[in-house]
Amino acid sequence: MIKVTLVGTGGMVPLPGRYLASCHIEYQGKALLIDCGEGTQISLHKGKISLNKIDTILITHCHADHVTGLPGLLLTMGNHGRTEPLNIVAPRGSSRILNSLLLVCGFLPFQVIISELHDTKPQEFDLIGLNIKSIPLRHHINCLGYSLELVLRPHFQPDKAKKYNIPVKLWRLLHGGQEVVVDDRTITPDMVLGEPRKPIKISYVTDTRPVKLIDEIVKDSDLFICEGMYGNDEMHEGAVAKMHMIFSEAANIALNAGVKELWLTHFSPSMPNPEEYKDSAANIFANTVIGKDLMSKTLKSD
User: Fold this and answer.
1) Residue 55 falls in the annotated catalytic set
2) Which domains does the chain have, with CATH numbers?
3) Measured on CA atoms in the order 38, 42, 46, 52, is the torsion positive or negative?
4) Is the pLDDT score of 276 beyond 80?
5) Cα-flanking dihedrals φ and ψ of residue 15, to 5°?
């Protein structure tokens, strides 16, 4: 099971009751945080979300509304007794900015490891048991979108194992992908496993104009979290100038990519009630949800 929580849904500046865009993803007792704008730790506290489970922070880009919550969050982690290293993954050129920002922390009782990713081509890596893919986006500075995928093993078939007289103590090895030998016979995993299973996939894209790589990275997502800076189609020209998206553009991506559900987030402070514009997206992609702070969902395997 993967639990996804929108920690904040605002863009540019926080509002009363709406913190800046951030997302918390938890799997098997560990967590990732995507972005950390001003007020992120307050929203995490309100949601009773453990800070010490956070293994890595994925940064989309280093504009202030996505990173200025880092010093406070890290200091609170230290005050809570954290000693394990914390990983921060960000676009090329981010280390200088992030290290400067963290100077105000002074001493931290844990190591902060900053890694930079390509901002000109997709890149893949693994974190907390999830396969992560990053893509370059189109914004004013280097910016990344992310997809997170849980690859599911085929179900183990006990009836097949019994047919081959395989001792129960060897079942776990086969389910894990290892061959075993029983009475001089080599038993391979495919002999006792079911059909391949569709992975659980979550995609997160914000602060960008639509680009072709977004369609590819979010394809078949169970949950697609996308910025909707402006709800009204009349704001398209402003969105282009500021390199953001409007609701209908996010909805068209969701439709074309065959995702199951779209959550809109990163709303302009000029739009205090994004629900008013929901139809701009829902008329294109029916399963659209207007994000709210601390909204969450647990994605389960079949």
Assistant:
1) no
2) 2-152+197-299 (3.60.15.10), 158-191 (no CATH)
3) positive
4) yes
5) -120, 160
